[in-house]
Protein backbone atom coordinates (compact mmCIF):
# COMPACT_ATOMS: atom_id res chain seq x y z
CA UNK A 1 0.00 0.00 0.00
CA UNK A 2 1.03 3.58 -0.60
CA UNK A 3 -0.21 6.77 0.98
CA UNK A 4 0.72 10.39 0.76
CA UNK A 5 -0.49 13.71 2.12
CA UNK A 6 0.53 17.32 2.32
CA UNK A 7 -0.17 19.49 5.32
CA UNK A 8 1.82 22.61 4.27
CA UNK A 9 1.83 23.72 7.92
CA UNK A 10 5.41 25.04 8.06
CA UNK A 11 8.49 24.71 5.88
CA UNK A 12 10.44 22.66 8.48
CA UNK A 13 7.92 21.56 11.11
CA UNK A 14 4.91 19.24 10.86
CA UNK A 15 1.55 20.30 12.24
CA UNK A 16 1.32 19.61 16.00
CA UNK A 17 -1.62 17.22 15.67
CA UNK A 18 0.27 14.87 13.33
CA UNK A 19 -2.68 14.82 10.95
CA UNK A 20 -0.55 14.86 7.79
CA UNK A 21 1.50 11.84 8.80
CA UNK A 22 -1.60 10.05 10.02
CA UNK A 23 -3.38 10.59 6.69
CA UNK A 24 -0.41 9.18 4.74
CA UNK A 25 -0.19 6.06 6.93
CA UNK A 26 -3.95 5.55 6.95
CA UNK A 27 -4.08 5.84 3.15
CA UNK A 28 -1.34 3.22 2.78
CA UNK A 29 -3.08 0.66 4.97
CA UNK A 30 -6.48 1.39 3.40
CA UNK A 31 -5.06 0.87 -0.09
CA UNK A 32 -3.68 -2.49 1.05
CA UNK A 33 -6.88 -3.37 2.94
CA UNK A 34 -4.89 -4.02 6.13
CA UNK A 35 -6.06 -3.21 9.66
CA UNK A 36 -3.70 -1.13 11.84
CA UNK A 37 -3.44 -3.92 14.41
CA UNK A 38 -1.94 -6.21 11.74
CA UNK A 39 1.14 -3.99 11.34
CA UNK A 40 4.13 -5.59 13.04
CA UNK A 41 6.78 -2.89 12.62
CA UNK A 42 6.90 0.80 11.73
CA UNK A 43 10.13 2.28 10.39
CA UNK A 44 9.57 5.83 11.58
CA UNK A 45 10.89 8.87 9.75
CA UNK A 46 12.47 9.65 13.14
CA UNK A 47 14.94 12.47 12.59
CA UNK A 48 15.82 12.72 16.30
CA UNK A 49 14.27 16.15 16.68
CA UNK A 50 12.00 16.46 19.68
CA UNK A 51 9.30 18.30 17.76
CA UNK A 52 9.32 16.03 14.70
CA UNK A 53 9.63 12.76 16.58
CA UNK A 54 6.92 13.61 19.11
CA UNK A 55 4.52 14.68 16.36
CA UNK A 56 5.25 11.55 14.31
CA UNK A 57 4.61 9.40 17.38
CA UNK A 58 1.33 11.26 17.92
CA UNK A 59 0.33 10.39 14.34
CA UNK A 60 1.41 6.76 14.79
CA UNK A 61 -0.56 6.44 18.03
CA UNK A 62 -3.64 7.85 16.32
CA UNK A 63 -3.28 5.04 13.78
CA UNK A 64 -2.38 2.08 16.03
CA UNK A 65 -3.83 3.25 19.37
CA UNK A 66 -1.69 1.77 22.18
CA UNK A 67 -0.69 -1.57 20.73
CA UNK A 68 2.48 -2.72 22.52
CA UNK A 69 3.05 -5.57 20.03
CA UNK A 70 3.89 -3.10 17.24
CA UNK A 71 7.58 -2.24 17.18
CA UNK A 72 8.68 1.25 16.13
CA UNK A 73 12.25 2.27 15.35
CA UNK A 74 14.19 4.79 13.31
CA UNK A 75 17.02 3.63 11.08
CA UNK A 76 18.30 7.21 10.77
CA UNK A 77 19.87 6.64 14.17
CA UNK A 78 22.37 4.29 12.51
CA UNK A 79 22.83 5.84 9.07
CA UNK A 80 22.05 9.53 9.51
CA UNK A 81 19.68 11.54 7.35
CA UNK A 82 20.29 10.83 3.68
CA UNK A 83 18.01 13.69 2.57
CA UNK A 84 16.57 12.83 -0.87
CA UNK A 85 17.68 9.20 -0.60
CA UNK A 86 16.29 8.67 2.92
CA UNK A 87 12.92 7.25 1.90
CA UNK A 88 14.35 4.70 -0.52
CA UNK A 89 17.05 3.49 1.90
CA UNK A 90 14.51 3.24 4.73
CA UNK A 91 12.20 1.25 2.44
CA UNK A 92 15.09 -1.17 1.87
CA UNK A 93 15.63 -1.43 5.64
CA UNK A 94 11.91 -2.18 6.01
CA UNK A 95 11.99 -4.96 3.42
CA UNK A 96 15.17 -6.41 4.95
CA UNK A 97 13.48 -6.44 8.36
CA UNK A 98 10.86 -8.78 6.88
CA UNK A 99 13.44 -11.00 5.17
CA UNK A 100 15.75 -11.26 8.19
CA UNK A 101 12.96 -11.38 10.79
CA UNK A 102 14.70 -8.62 12.72
CA UNK A 103 13.67 -5.07 13.60
CA UNK A 104 16.59 -2.63 13.50
CA UNK A 105 17.33 -0.79 16.73
CA UNK A 106 16.89 2.88 17.44
CA UNK A 107 20.48 3.62 18.42
CA UNK A 108 21.34 6.20 21.09
CA UNK A 109 17.80 6.21 22.47
CA UNK A 110 18.62 7.09 26.07
CA UNK A 111 15.72 9.29 27.16
CA UNK A 112 12.64 8.81 25.02
CA UNK A 113 10.26 11.71 25.45
CA UNK A 114 7.11 9.73 24.76
CA UNK A 115 4.68 8.58 27.38
CA UNK A 116 3.02 5.95 25.21
CA UNK A 117 3.10 2.23 25.86
CA UNK A 118 5.05 1.31 22.72
CA UNK A 119 8.26 -0.55 21.95
CA UNK A 120 10.74 1.90 20.40
CA UNK A 121 13.36 -0.87 19.99
CA UNK A 122 16.07 0.93 21.97
CA UNK A 123 19.75 0.22 21.22
CA UNK A 124 19.52 -3.48 20.26
CA UNK A 125 17.76 -5.11 17.27
CA UNK A 126 14.82 -7.36 18.15
CA UNK A 127 13.58 -10.53 16.54
CA UNK A 128 10.27 -10.11 14.80
CA UNK A 129 8.40 -12.30 12.35
CA UNK A 130 6.88 -9.36 10.50
CA UNK A 131 4.10 -9.83 8.01
CA UNK A 132 3.35 -6.12 7.52
CA UNK A 133 5.87 -3.29 7.81
CA UNK A 134 5.08 0.40 7.40
CA UNK A 135 7.84 2.83 6.33
CA UNK A 136 7.34 6.57 6.86
CA UNK A 137 9.01 9.44 5.00
CA UNK A 138 7.92 12.89 6.12
CA UNK A 139 9.65 15.86 4.51
CA UNK A 140 10.05 19.59 4.44
CA UNK A 141 7.01 21.59 3.53
CA UNK A 142 4.64 18.97 4.90
CA UNK A 143 5.11 16.21 2.33
CA UNK A 144 4.25 12.87 3.94
CA UNK A 145 4.59 9.42 2.44
CA UNK A 146 4.00 5.96 3.88
CA UNK A 147 4.69 2.61 2.23
CA UNK A 148 3.26 -0.67 3.50
CA UNK A 149 5.21 -3.83 2.71
CA UNK A 150 3.99 -7.41 3.15
CA UNK A 151 6.04 -10.56 3.54
CA UNK A 152 6.03 -12.94 0.59
CA UNK A 153 3.88 -16.01 1.15
From TrEMBL:
* UniProt-recorded Gene Ontology molecular function terms: 3-oxoacyl-[acyl-carrier-protein] synthase activity
Please name one Pfam family that this protein belongs to: Ketoacyl-synt_C
| InterPro entries in UniProt | Beta-ketoacyl_synthase, Ketoacyl_synth_C, PKS_Beta-ketoAc_synthase_dom, Thiolase-like
Which UniProt keywords are present, listed alphabetically? Transferase
The Ketosynthase family 3 (KS3) domain extends over 1-151
Which SUPFAM superfamilies does this entry report, sorted A to Z? Thiolase-like
**Its GO biological process terms?**
fatty acid biosynthetic process
* UniProt name for this protein: Ketosynthase family 3 (KS3) domain-containing protein
Amino acid sequence: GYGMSGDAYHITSPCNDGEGGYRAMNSAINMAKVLPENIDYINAHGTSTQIGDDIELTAIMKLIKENPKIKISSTKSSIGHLLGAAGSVEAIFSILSILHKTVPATLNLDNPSNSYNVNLVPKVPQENNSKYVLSNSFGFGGTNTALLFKSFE
